[in-house]
Amino acid sequence: PRPHPTIRVRPLSSTETRRGDQQVVHSLGDGAIHVSAARHDATFGFSAVFDAGASQEAVFEGSGMRQLVELAIDGFSCTVFAFGQTGSGKTYTLMGPLAQSDTQPAAPALLGLMQRSFTCLLEQSRSRGSDLALSASYLEIYNEQIRDLLSPGPPCSLPLRWSKTRGFYVENQLSVEFDSLETIVSLLLQGSQRRRTSAHALNRHSSRSHALLTILIRSRAHHPIMWVLQAGACPGKQGTLCFVDLAGSERVKETGSSGELSVEANSINRSLLALGHCISLLAKSRGKRTHIPYRDSKLTRLLARSLGGSGVTLMVACISPSSRCLSETLSTLHYASRARRVTTRP
């Protein structure tokens, strides 16, 4: 199958409306989206397009996220990642409002793809009556350093290794078992609060790192003879559900970044460029495909299996409808169009 790029257009912000920005992005229905501005007139087609009026629930149901959860339970390696310009609504789409915590939960209608997927996962595991073991790990890639968001104490850099059996993996990463919605949501919120964010001209809460939350779903095979002979050591399925919140692409001139913010921006843009390069090469037919440079960044190494290997991938491209963001919006739409042509073998 191919990845399913889904487009989400956020509303114009109060700043953009006050400034008099024009809305240059329009949904045409049936997965078509039109961009119209001076010297630019283009129509793109995707599996689904959600405009500014779409609810969080509509995005969850219409993007195929529920089916992705079911595939993960069935033993597949599944990934959803949100990408787009800084301030385009990636973290909101995945998590919901930023101002939420264990003591101040978000309104149910505003919860993002992650919390809705957790609910779906736990409901499915109970309804199937299977013996599922669930565990979660959460890390960020900040300035090309991998840091564990669940380990207590100040974040320290973890090594990225490679083996023939596992592919690329993070050594000494903490994995926490959970069996309730409260526990996994608490882990998500604790980890997210430790993630690096900063304010700049385009976004008051700009993510300065790529974040990956991975849920491992292990199920034991129930075969009576095997159960007696091996005392519980039955072979079983193992699936993963990985949520990737990419830091937003940004132009330093637009964000007004300097010093440490500028260093972060360059690091973010380099890793996103490496990701885009891998996607462009994967989109070519197998006969014309050259070596895929996954090793160019830590992000592409960790996403290697999801992008071009044995995974099932959902991509959510978040864009601003503002005329001021036209260049970045077109770049994101072209990026998603290329991703449509990638074929994986789950």
From TrEMBL:
Q: Which domain of life is it from?
A: Eukaryota
List the Gene3D superfamilies: Kinesin motor domain (3.40.850.10)
- According to the record, the residues making up region (Disordered) are 1-20
Q: Under what name is this protein listed?
A: Kinesin-like protein
Q: Does the keyword Cytoplasm apply?
A: yes
From the UniProt record, which GO molecular function terms apply?
A: ATP binding; microtubule binding; microtubule motor activity
Q: Which family does it belong to?
A: Belongs to the TRAFAC class myosin-kinesin ATPase superfamily. Kinesin family.
UniProt xrefs under PANTHER family:
CHROMOSOME-ASSOCIATED KINESIN KIF4A-RELATED, KINESIN-LIKE PROTEIN
- Give one GO biological process term: mitotic spindle organization
What gene is this protein a product of? Answer: Kif12
The yes or no answer to whether the keyword Cytoplasm is present is: yes
| UniProt-listed SMART domains | KISc (SM00129)
Its localization reads: Cytoplasm, Cytoskeleton
CC annotations in GO: microtubule; microtubule associated complex
Residues at which ATP binds: G84, Q85, T86, G87, S88, G89, K90, T91
